[in-house]
Amino acid sequence: MTEYKFLTTWVFDAPCDRVWDIIVDYNNFPNWWPAVAEIRRLSDGDATGKGSIWTMIWKTPLSYTLSFTSTITTVEPPHRLELYAVGEVDGTGRWELSETETGTQVCYYWTVKTTKLWMNLLALLFKPVLEWNHNAIMKQGGQGLANQLGAKLVHAEERVL
Fold it and tell me: What digits encode the pLDDT tens for the residues 90-113?
């Protein structure tokens, strides 16, 4: 398996609570994030969403789809949401929101290993292309979230760690 570590940072001129409400509303992702092809809730979890299980299918700029199931492991409104993913990628994701002078900073940490044989073979030569693909998806998400908020995306940065 090939491991990837990413950090995406977005800053919106919107209040933290509004940003949080959209990020935790997984059912609504396809309405604002173009890369989300399909999402289905398998389990509700508790009242905060902890323990909820979701299957997601992502369509990528490189014209392949990626499917995995996420279990929400931590919910600390409105600042932290963590998940564990299994499927065509295995690993962890963590949303961290904080208030800034201009609005809300969102950091998303994504640490995964690919499980598809073709992706692992391709990574031997083209790992930077697969990293670019992830970053392109996150750029779409940042702009889509800004549009959903009716807010300005003040800053966006995608980094490979």
Answer: 999 999 999 999 899 999 999 999
How many C-beta atoms lie closer than 10 Å to residue 53's C-beta?
A: 16
What b/e readout covers 123-160, taking b as 16+ CB neighbours within 10 angstroms? beeebeebbebbbebbbbbbbbbbebbebebbebebee
Between CA 22 and CA 32 the distance in angstroms is 10
Pairing type for strands 80-87 and 65-76 reads antiparallel
Condensed to tens digits (0 to 9), the pLDDT of residues 55-103 reads 999 999 999 999 999 999 999 999 999 999 999 999 999 999 999 998 9
End-to-end CA distance of the chain: 17
Model pTM score: 0.95
**Is-contact 111 4, C-beta < 8 A?**
yes
> Which of 112, 103, 116, 109 lies closest to 149 in space, CA to CA?
103
